[in-house]
Records
---
Amino acid sequence: MFFKTILTAGAIGLLSTASYAGCGIDSGSVRIGGNDFPAYQAVAEAASQCSGGGVTVSVDLNKDHKDRQVASLTANPAEFTSSLANNSALSALMNDGLVRPLNNLIAKHASGLQDMQFVTVDGEVMAIAYMANAQHLFYRSDILDAAGVAPPKTYEEVLAAAKTIKDKGLMEYPIAGTYAGWNLGLEFINMYLGHGGEFFESGSAKPAVNNSKGVATLNMMKSLTEYMNPDFLTYDSNAVQADWEAGKVALTNLWGSRAGPVTDGEGSTPEIESNTKFTSAPTVAGGSRPATTLWWDGFTVATNISDEDAEATFKAMMNGISMQMAVANAEKANWLIKGAQPNPAGVGVLASASGGALPYPMLPYFGAMHSAIGAEIVDFLQGNETAEKALEDVEAAYIAAATEKGFL
Amino acid sequence: MNKKNNWLNILSLSFIIIWLILASVPFLWTLWGSFKVEADFFSKQDWRNAIFGVRTLVETGGIFTLNGYKGAWIQEEFWRAALNTGIVTVSVVTISLTLGTLGGYALARSGFRYAFWILIAALIFRAMPHITLVSGYLLPFFELGLWGHLSTTIVVLVAINQPFTLWMLHSFFSTIPKDLDESAMVDGCTRFQAFRHVIIPVMWPGVITTGLFSFLLAYNDFAITALLLTETNQTMVPKIAGFLGSAQEQGNVMFAVAAVVSATVPLFMLVMFFQRQIVSGLTAGAVKG
Amino acid sequence: MPHHTFFKFIWPSALAMLIFIALPIVSISIQSFFIEHEKVLVVVENCTPFGCKKETRVDIEASKVLEEEKPLGRFNWFGTYTNRNHLAFSELNQAWKESQNFNDFLGEVFNLPFYKALSFTLSYTFIVTPLVIIIGFFIALAVNRLPSFFKGPTIFICLLPMIITPLIGSLVLFWMIDAEGIIGSLLQIIFDDQNLSLKASPTLTWVMLFVYGVWHHAPFAFVVFYAGLQTIPRDALESAMIDGANRWEQTRYVIIPHLMPLAVFISLIQLMDNFRVFEPIVGFNAQASATSLSWLIYNDFRSGDGDMLFGSAAATSILTIIGISILMTPVIVRTWSANKPVIGAR
């Protein structure tokens, strides 16, 4: 008995640095699907520890998970019993009722969850969040010092700081932004929310972006692009990060999940890394909310599976988001899990959240709006049309898509 | 006359040299860069870093590093993807060619108008964007429990590959004289026996050329394999795309570069090996009938 | 060949195509005439880790009832085809009425996503296809003149651009043509312009994509032409020489006519592949300046996290097939009237 305990402990120790208690599942099939990156891998890995006996846990993480999530959960039985999701993925799943409310399971099996982790819709918990992410300001303290400006708190200050840096010849293109495709749509959404804008007429799916706030948003984006590399419309996060690590950029609004990688001792010089600082996303136009959107990542449980599998899945996922997992993987994400140490690279996300930034909207028709924005404001940024015309195009493109989806 | 010919020779030689440079430099560049770190190969400071490996020296202590290869093959288990690609490619090529030779032969010998229309239909089928087809397959495959298996992907790739295979092989069989198999049939063979004993021995050049194109399609496919396979069954190209990261998350770009180089090696060998056959196959396809 | 023998030979191939291509095409064309049921929306309170907010959601129970009655959705005729994101008839009509001159009108037309994509797709098809054929032809001629010792390795290198995965090939080139990359920097030196960037201007982005397309496809034309050159009967060339034909005349009157059927075959395949241009746009992150029909389809599938715009994508797919059919009609008619196979016909 003694030896057995030692052996088990040793085996668990080999599998992971933290040891996991039994999950208390007798039987069932757990099939986890999600996007593929280190934080999700850590959660899935911890959930896999529940495998054994009558329980099978399979994990399938794929970068294109969002393209297949609806189809895979529509099938009966669903291909995945749990789909790892974020704000926008959850609304796609809920549109077709593909994920089940977790209230009963929480009452029976959950302990140690924080209230803030519950993603509730009309009182029903649809997902349990375990990590947070947001775009926020990255700045180079040495360059700002040399330019004699303080870290900017508003986008107006960002523009002023960029002008000083450029005029003093410190950098040619001091600002970088993720302005390609989907990212561009999100940059508009961030900035528009910072302006206090509303995307829809209240309580309906009718678009309402063609207004003075929308125009101001576009003009601010255009002013920022004047300090960006002329290739800005091809810049995704990878390109921004590369420019940052090469020391070509002093100010950018980049993902919190990229804060660790730019200070990890790889790809850059110690001088750049030690002067890379993070803070809340700036506010804009005298507003009080940081112009960014907050994202959570969480797990869901599929509707089209047996109750037994749902229960097993829930228990396994609770093990996946245990405190031990969060402690052992502290640097991989900004965990929302109780007892997790704050991630040193997470100050920007925290500051943006405590500054009152809004979450990415969880509206059923928001995906259509997002892609309409990303596609239609390009003409304005290229200088081919007016801001009003671009916003008119956004609304028209959205209306066509939303009509097809049955929202209008 | 001679002088003019010399000029022509120089012109044609310089043209071919320029093309050879254009065709090979990106490959040599990638091969060389795969032994560097990301900050060098994708340097935003100075492209010469990719040649001299300035940051590689700082980060790894040497001018060359195997980190990309180690990361891809050992840490990310790229060999699994390589194995899957092997299975998929070999199966797709074999099955495509088997079905294609039978169908192509029939089309070439039919003599009825409907054979022509089948060929046209095949062309229209080939016009369908693959991504639309895949999105259509997703739900039925999940419903039927067929999703994620290598065999499903193989069947889909074979089907998608059929129109091109049929066209190539039909054209090829049209150039094989009819008398060949018809005289065998006069001697009492059935159509199938004639096919087996007379046509199969002479069809290899055309089959090898067609096979190369099937191979490239199966080997390089992204749209279908990315969405239809589970992680453990993933083939090389989607695996490489997976290394590139997403909006929120940094990827391992150097793993991708090393994996690309690794994935190109079999293609190199294939072309080296079959180069003569590819050309002779196409030649045979156009030989006077 | 009797019908039943024909059938015996072709059925496996035909079955595979029927199930995996024909059936989806039928289902897609049906789907393109439908739009989803009107969703029943309710306003509820949503809470996330970042606070609570009143937001709308789909009333699943109410929406399900509608769906079970008519699973395909609402019949919309050609509504999806003619809406703004596709053929945009009413927008075109309005633009025609409101624009002062023809240029104005064209500006309005190319502001619509479908026509924007179509203009790039057609330009790409009609610029890349002939260039591929011409360059492939000259490479084949040049390689054919080499001493046989060099032929093998040369053919091998010439084929390289064709065998690389488009997604990866364009990614590597994307970095090389960056203003800081090797090709981008060289171009800056050659044109003596410090600010030259291929990615910044829409025109240069188009040119870059065309060049990539030619680079990637020329080997295909080369290898087909090269094989064709091997089959030119020696006596034809020799008799031309005896008649006093110079090299140009030999090429013009012997080689080109001989290779014509192959050129038709190549243009058929190339027209089709180029009309579906997609990977380089993604690889070069060029969607701001250049979109193609296939890219529109991809975008419809990607929008909404798997909650795809299936009808819209279906409509664009059908329009793509129609477009390709129109492009290929001349070639098909030619084949039909000649009543002979395209490749290898002599």
---
Amino acid sequence: MEEGMAAAPPTNIKKRKSDRMEGGEPPPPGSVKCDSDGSLDLISRLPDEVLGTIISLLPTMDGARTQAISWRWRPLWRSSPLNLQADHNFTGQDRKRIAFVSKILSVHPGPARRLALLGIRLRHRYGKIDGWLRSRALTGLREMVFRYEIEDPQLPYPLPPSALRFAPTLCAPEIGNCDFPNELAPSLNFPCLKQLTLCSVTMSQDALHSLLSGCTILESLLLMGNNGIASLHVSSPTLRSIGFSASGYWVQLQYGIMLQELVIEDAPCLERLLPLNPNYGPATIRVIRAPKLEILGLLSDGISKLQLGTLVFQLGDLSVHREDFGP
Amino acid sequence: MAAPESGDGNNGAARMVTLISSDNTRFEVEAAAASLSQTLQLTILDGGGGGGDGIPLPNVDSATLSKVLEYCIKHAPAAANGGAPNATAVDRAELERFDNEFVNIDQSVLYSLIMAAHNLEIEGLQSLVAKKVADMIKGKSPMEIRRTLGFPDPTPEEQAEMNAHMLEYGWAYE
């Protein structure tokens, strides 16, 4: 990093560079002490932006703790994109977890890189969760994992519409164990979304179709155990991989509407079509146009009809091109 | 300068460019590898760096540049493949092995590498080195982080500030 003896004449590259290198925040007044002696830890000389990237890769509490390591690091956690992961590693106690999420969202000014709310118990907390999702700290959210813990399957578990305010920036949302606000689907656009995961979500067939048409650069789609979609028709110029299962991670749907038919109408880039739990269907898979399809996962009793172009297989137990079975 | 002209349009596979480090060492490398750097890509697309000219990199010394280029050369084929959707699991495992080995280096080298990746805007390298440092920090107390990163012992004021932070951010220390 020494400017030194560079014999090379300055170019536009150099100019831009050195501007950026000096981009760090000036030390707070009266704390110059470290910089003059050569003994300063080297890492603290990196620009704020670089240190911020490092901090936003850390788990939430680790990130917050970096504020204590020195004056140089003090302001960085608050000025780096927030990475908020509230799962059972965060703390095992539900009530504490709720309090921490509220706390962190109140002290961090945003923006956010990632939010993971996993196994959150809804109970009487809809207003609180909605409030979290509206908070300024989460502005610009790129990655989101949202999953309730289902304590009583008879009760509704609505996904707050505020979770969808991040549509313009989301890259890889994973939504599970909730009821999707169907009425919002037609108005949503996800210009950055490449990977979509829906697991044990209750939503209408129409809502899913609208949602998918709003994902203009979607490459990977994972659908497991969703309720309300009997027949899914996929047309996408960008999609490369679809993983699907009529059954969920944890339980079979005892009631409700499971996926019975998957139709790939037109997917010119589709390479992988993977039934993740083939014993449970869907009963019919039809591929009308997918010229790049290379891998079709393991099939089984649960899938009774497979149609590729005009070729129809009535299946007992047949596997085609066994290469990749995993999600 | 360097208003992106249409240039030569196709950057031929085996086209070579020369990069010149701050201590005046010249490195000849395939344009495709050097183009992993967003910063260099423009200049290269513009036809720069060929022949006797070379692109001076006054902020990167030769030791660091050779390390950076080692990374670029290894990753160039996969990058040319559009994020390597067709890469086999073996290719991917090999790159991962290379990456792990690659950042197994002294901290001073690591920081020079971070700066170079940042200045040259080499996305994959930027996240690789950032992740390495994050791994060094993860799961540690502020005092342990200071030791890991080679900070001097805290002055009494710094110690007092650390304690104050631990009180204020009690939730981060459970």
